[in-house]
Structure prediction request, 565 residues.
Amino acid sequence: MTVGTNAALVSDATIEVRGVSKWFGNKVAVSDVTCSFGPGITGLLGPNGAGKTTLLRMMMGLTSPSQGSVSMFGEDPRRAPTVFKDVAFVPEDDAVYPFLTARQFVRYAANLTDGELGESAVTEALRRVEMLEPADRLISDYSKGMRQRAKVAAALVHNPRVLVLDEPLNGTDPVRRASLIDLFKELAASGHTIIISSHVLQEVERLATRVIAMVDGKLAAAGDIHAIRAAMSDIPYQVRIDTDTPRQVAAALLSLDTVSGIDVLERGLRIETTDLSSVGNALPRIAADLDARVTRFEPVDESLESVFRYLVKASR
Amino acid sequence: MIAFRAIFVTSLRQLFTRKRIIGFGLITLLPAVLVALIPASSADSPEELFLGIAVETLLKLVVPIIAIVLASGVLGDERTDKTLSFLTLRPISRFTIAGAKITATAAAASSFAAFGAILLGITYAVRGGVGGPTVGLIVSGVLSATLYTSLVTPLGYLTRRATILALSYLILMENVIISAVPAMASSSPWRVGLAGGGALLPSNFRRSAVLDTIGTLELNLPGAVIQVVGTGAVLTIILGLLLSRRDNV
Prediction:
């Protein structure tokens, strides 16, 4: 895994982001990000507020960068709308027309993108997201997951080479989620560039082999998802353990190689470990040996945000 | 052309909500109800009474309010509802989007204006009025509605306060300042509309003192049409440029 260097760039890029920053007043939303995207699925990963949506909006030309530049097929999307013949965007927002049916919505997208597209393209797009059956009901009657799928159908109707999706699996049930993931993988396998932003690591792991991770508007990590996962294994997690015999349990835990620090508290311990599972496995045995009562075993700060903060710190 | 038509048709559906049809439909009844209720003896002539009510209610109140409300929402609502990116991330010219939006709003506002004018004409005829003022009123209403929508649609894209700003212009500028300074009449959409449609009124109406409200404008249909179409074209270009250059936040 590399951080903020060549792993953020691909040789066969369809979208290039060069030194892009965006600030709103005093608030920096994106800071000096350079990366590129090519065929296959790239996950844009980061906690909420990391700047993913702002970066996607700049890539699509919806927001102008305060600094730096973005190109899509070599063109600035703000100056050359023709690039959208080959690009589609699925925003996180409920950007749908509630007074239309899904079929009308997808047909509207088709008419705005390629006047030659017929009803068969509309039906095919709806079929791919499993929306044929409710296609003639008003969108206002749909669940969040159905609205998401209608948006994906509208994005797919002209078979774009680049598909950019902002949190596309939000609100979808597990079955539909799995079929959407299969659909994105199928598109990627046929040479499409798919960019999927998400704040859920497990979701991105299922989807993407390549990841661009952001935190606090900066590029935190880039590269292969497995390498990032491996890097995370070195991150010290803080764990809170509540027990009636904290000193004895602390002494026993110190014998574990993976425990790097212990604070004894009034009714428990706060330990630092690089391997949560080994501590979790050892603790019942220690408790049994010491006849201690353990009432809590909980990572204190395991959020994605803290993980990425660590990666950013590690890269400096 | 397919994209223009698609935006135009979808915008009409967006504008003609059930609530608006009922609400605006009721508002457009108001001038006809007044013509039906106010006794003919309350003015110098039936023509004077009819035209007075038509101008004071339909042209100065009903048409501007409907046009302003529709125009401030046609792009403003797309921004609020986050659907604007659905239009702008397409391989189509921003001028196509601007033109389709302004045309659809003008068509929607004009249909309400025409409906109000037709109701007025029918009421006048039922009360035994002489001459056919309906066509002149329809044209006045359509020209006014088109001019208001052309002006307010870009404003609705720029600010959420478009309705308030446009209504303030209507009340303060058009009905107070321009009334006092007749030379500024060409910057008043309802006066431009009345100048155009007034040219089609029967001769017994064209003598009415009510037509003095058009200030230094003359009863001239081609002149009014040129002003309305020209303004619409310029504002379509301005809106297209705004859509190209401004962030879709």
About this structure: The mean pLDDT of chain B is 90.
